[in-house]
C-alpha cells in the first residue's frame, strides 16, 4: 500500500516539554483520513511536522516520499488548512486568489474562480468581513487550487456553526471525489468524521491506538453487555479494548474477527464515536490488565 505520510519514533520538544514523542504512524494514500484523539495527544504537532511548518526534534517523517518542506516542489505537493483559517483580513477574496497564484507553481486559477463563484464569495469582499463559514470555504478553495496531492486539515470546522460545518464538509466531499486527492483531517467532532472519512487513526499520548478503514473497524469491534457474574467468567480470546461496570452489569468492548456466541452476553455494534471513546478511555487500562491476568 502506498503511503502519503510515514513517521517513525517522531518527536517534537519545546524546551523541556514534549508536544509529540515516539510517534509512529503510516497513513495510506487514496483515503480521507480522520485523525482523532484527546487534547494534548499531539495531533496538531504531527500535522504541522507533516506540512513542513515544524522541524522534528527526534525521529523521522516523510510525506509523499520526501522530507516535508525540503524544496519548493515538495511544498507545492501539500496543501494545509489550519484551524484558524489563516487569511489576511485586509485582503479581498480576489486578492487572496492572486496571491495564491503567485505563491503556488501548480495553481489552478480556473478552479479557484469557479469554486469561489459556486460558493457565492464576492471577489471584492475583504476576508475580515466574511462569516466564519465563508472564511473556511475560502481557505479550502486556496488549498484545493494549489492542486496538492495531499491536503492536510487541522480542525478546519471547529469554530463553525452546524449549518456552516455541514456545508463545508459537503464541499470537501465533492472536492476530494472530483480531484482524487488524499486528505488527512483532524477533528474533535467524530460525527463530522463519520460524514467524510473512510479511514481512521486514533492518537493517544503520541501513540496510534488503532488505525484502519472505518468499515473494517466497525465490523470487527463489538460491545458485550452482561452481568457482573458473567464478567468474572469472561471466556473470550478477543482483544479487550475497554471495560466498564455499573452496579448491575459489565460492558466490554472487544476487537475480534470471529462471531461471538455466548448466552451470558448481549452483543451489539458500535458507532464510530463509541469506538473512538473506547480507545481514548485511559481509565480502563488497569481493568484490561487485570482481565488479562485472570485469563
Automatic annotation (TrEMBL):
Q: Which InterPro entries match?
A: AAA+_ATPase, ABC_transporter-like_ATP-bd, ABC_Transporter_VariousFunc, P-loop_NTPase
Q: Which GO terms describe its molecular function?
A: ATP binding; ATP hydrolysis activity
Q: Which keywords label this protein?
A: ATP-binding, Nucleotide-binding, Transport
ABC transporter domain segment(s): 5-230
Pfam (any one): ABC_tran
Which protein, by its recorded name, is this?
ABC transporter ATP-binding protein
Amino acid at each position: 500500500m502506498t503511503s502519503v505520510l510515514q513517521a517513525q519514533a517522531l518527536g517534537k520538544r519545546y524546551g523541556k516539554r514534549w508536544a509529540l514523542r515516539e510517534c509512529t504512524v503510516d497513513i495510506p494514500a487514496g483515503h480521507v483520513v480522520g485523525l482523532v484523539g484527546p487534547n494534548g495527544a499531539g495531533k496538531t504537532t504531527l500535522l504541522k511536522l507533516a506540512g513542513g511548518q515544524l522541524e522534528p526534534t527526534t525521529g523521522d517523517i516523510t510525506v509523499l516520499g520526501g522530507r516535508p518542506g525540503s524544496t519548493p516542489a515538495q511544498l507545492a505537493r501539500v496543501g494545509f488548512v489550519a484551524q484558524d483559517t489563516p487569511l489576511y483580513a485586509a485582503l479581498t477574496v480576489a486578492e487572496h486568489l492572486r496571491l495564491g497564484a503567485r505563491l503556488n507553481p501548480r495553481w489552478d486559477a480556473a478552479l479557484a474562480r469557479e469554486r469561489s463563484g459556486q460558493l457565492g464569495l464576492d471577489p471584492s469582499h475583504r476576508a475580515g468581513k466574511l462569516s466564519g463559514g465563508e472564511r473556511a470555504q475560502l481557505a479550502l478553495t486556496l488549498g484545493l487550487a494549489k492542486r496538492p496531492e495531499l491536503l492536510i486539515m487541522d480542525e478546519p470546522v471547529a469554530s463553525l456553526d452546524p449549518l456552516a460545518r455541514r456545508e463545508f464538509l459537503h464541499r470537501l466531499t465533492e472536492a476530494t471525489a472530483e480531484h482524487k486527492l488524499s486528505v488527512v483531517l483532524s477533528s474533535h467532532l467524530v460525527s463530522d468524521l463519520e460524514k467524510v472519512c473512510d479511514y481512521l487513526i486514533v492518537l493517544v499520548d503520541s501513540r496510534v491506538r488503532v488505525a484502519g478503514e472505518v468499515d473494517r473497524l466497525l465490523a470487527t469491534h463489538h460491545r458485550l453487555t452482561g452481568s457482573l457474574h458473567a464478567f468474572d467468567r469472561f471466556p473470550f480470546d478477543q482483544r479487550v479494548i475497554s471495560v466498564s461496570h455499573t452496579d448491575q452489569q459489565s460492558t466490554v468492548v472487544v476487537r475480534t474477527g470471529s462471531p461471538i456466541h455466548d448466552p451470558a452476553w448481549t452483543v451489539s455494534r458500535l458507532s464510530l464515536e463509541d469506538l473512538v471513546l473506547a480507545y481514548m478511555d485511559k481509565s480502563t487500562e488497569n481493568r484490561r490488565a487485570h482481565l488479562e491476568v485472570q485469563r
